Amino acid sequence: MTASHETSLFSIRPLTADDYERLFSLWTLCGMDPEMQGRESKSAFLQQLEQFPDFYLAAMVEERIVGVVLGTHDGRKGWINRLAVHPDHQRRGIASALVTACDTAIRAHSIGIVAALVEADNAASAALFEALGYCEDAPVRYFRKLDRPGP
User: Fold this and answer.
1) Which of 1, 82, 88, 139 would disulfide-bridge 70, Cβ 3.0–4.6 Å?
2) How far does Cα 38 stand from its chain's mean position?
C-alpha cells in the first residue's frame, strides 16, 4: 500500500533512489546535520528504502521536494524519523500530512504502536505530535553503543 495525499498546495509521494541528493540537501538546509558517511549515507538510504518503500515519503510542490519523513518498524513498533519541511513551506500542513501518511502506512502493516523521538528543545515538533494525538510517554534514558566514535 502506497501512502498518498494531495492538496492544492502540495502532494505526498513515496521517495525514490533518485531523490537522495535532494533529501540530503533538505535535511542540511533544515539544520539536521545528516551523517553522509553513516546512517544517512546513500547506501544506507537505498537499503532502507528497499525495506520500507511505503514509509519513506516526500512532500512535493510541483517537482520540488519541500518535506520528507522516513518511517520504519521492527515488527512490533513503528518509528517516525527525520521529519523535515523546507523553511519556506512551513506552517502549511505539510508536516502534519507527512506524519499522518507515514503513520497510516505503518499501521496498514499491522503495526499497532507508532512512535517518534523528539529532541527536548524542539517545541515545534513536540506540539505537532501532540496535536496529531501522540502523547508523551514516560521519561526514558537513552543508551547507545556506536561501532565508531562520533556524536
Assistant:
1) 82
2) 17
